[in-house]
Amino acid sequence: MPPPPLDTSGVVAAYLAASLAIGVAVKDKASSLKGFLVAHRSMRDWMLAFTFGATYFSSVVMIVGSSWAYAWGPLSLVIPLANIAIGALLAFIVVGERVNKLGRMLDALTIPELVARLHGDKGLQRLLGITVSIGLLLYLVTVASGVAVVLSSALHIGLGVSAAIIAAVLAGYVALGGMYSVVLTDVLQGVIMASIVGAVAFLALGKAGPASLDAVAAKPPSPLLIIDLALLTSLAVWGLPQLLNRFYTVPSTRAVRRATGLATLFAFIVALGSFLAGLAAHQLASPSKPIDALPSLVARLLGEPGLAVLAAAVLAAAMSTADSVALTAASALVYDAAGSRDPGRLRLASAGVVVAATLAAIAVLSLPKTIYMALTGVFKAGWSITAGALLVPVLAAVLGHRDPVAARASALAGAATALAIAVARVGTSIAHVRPPALLLNVFMLSFTITITVSAIAYIVASLARRAAEA
């Protein structure tokens, strides 16, 4: 007699309970400022690899990435390959080791603080703190809405109840254990994500073979869109504080170096595996629409137990991003922007950020679909706003070019450009107006344009300052 199918709700409930238990277990370790924000720089190298990977790859790469592969065909593989090479391998080599070394040397606890100290401008920390908190709070609303929808589906409960559970669990373990909780839960989340995606990709390629790479695109994509998405999901990592602050958690650059290979392997399994699974779905599954490519494939290969683990993996992927964003947004708001050094206020802010974002997510989900979809574009732009403000100043600072005036100009120009493009996109969507060709190209290359404007602003401001001093 075959065993009964694994209950999705049981797997998800066990995962949520384990996450909250971790927060309770490490509460005392996070009682100090350094413990709460950087886990006393005491994490192991393999933990760095898992927490970086779990934070980097949210449920978007698993579900949306596989749907892109299913709809767009083999050309979409440019995106995960960029994630592996630029977002993981080069991020550790070019930025990671320097952030770790400089962070310890200057005793910086956040990325805005490191950039401000390297540029010699305390006001820059406040400016970046404000920008980061706005950008990440916007992005957190999108992540929280995704988590609520996934949990609602997995446990067969209403969105309101789902949101309350998510807010309680996330706020609980983030506020209790700070970076300790985030890193340790990320390890758990990363194991779940890599296991299910790796197993599905391995089985799918074994059955479909090289034929999966010949999948015909249902909707041929624009190469410009692919390039912009590849840069957005890889190069942007170099300017996202919720990922860069992971390099603070280990005691040495040697630990960062040792973690590089495992982090790259994690990216290979989760990012490339998700896209390859989407391609293989053409041969092995019959999804009703591209977004169902991975769930349909899992049902075909692993049955009900696989779907239960996939539900937990998608939830884990979303929560690993949400907890990191919440902690970073709270530290940017309280520590960087407001200048508070009170761990109690950081705990309170972390919980408050989660609750506020979850309430906003439910409010947005309750709106008519057209308005909800339009507003989601603004919230998703939080990723670009944050990276647009930080990428160029961070790179300039860690690579040795220090100019506070240029850093300020670059941060403001990058954030403003990302926000302007998002607002224009939302405006045309709500008005049901087809944008002219030029504006469509701007939308398609939004991240590339954002970073280009930010870099130009840095160069122009730096040259102007030198000319004024000459």
How many DSSP-defined strands? 0
Oligomeric form: single chain
Structural class, by secondary structure, is: mainly alpha
Element pattern in H and E: HHHHHHHHHHHHHHHHH
- Report the CATH C-level class: Mainly Alpha
Rg over CA atoms, rounded to whole Å, is: 21 Å
CATH topology label: Sodium/glucose cotransporter
Determine the number of helices (DSSP H or I, runs of at least 4 residues): 17
Number of domains: 1
Percentage of residues assigned to helices: over 70%
Q: Provide mean pLDDT, rounded.
A: 87
Q: Kindly report the name of the CATH homologous superfamily.
A: Sodium/glucose cotransporter
Structural account:
- The chain is mainly alpha-helical and 470 residues long.
- The chain has one domain: Sodium/glucose cotransporter, CATH 1.20.1730.10.
- It is 80% helix and 0% strand.
- The protein is built from 17 helices and no strands.
- It is globular, with a radius of gyration of 21 Å.
- The termini are far apart.
In short:
By secondary structure, the chain is mainly α.
What's the arrangement of secondary structure elements?
Elements: H1 8-25, H2 33-38, H3 45-56, H4 59-72, H5 78-106, H6 111-119, H7 122-155, H8 159-208, H9 223-232, H10 241-244, H11 253-284, H12 293-337, H13 343-365, H14 369-398, H15 404-430, H16 437-444, H17 446-469
Helix pairs in contact: 1-8, 1-12, 3-8, 3-11, 3-12, 4-11, 4-12, 5-6, 5-9, 5-11, 6-7, 6-14, 7-8, 7-12, 7-13, 7-14, 7-15, 8-11, 8-12, 8-13, 11-12, 12-13, 14-15, 14-17, 15-17
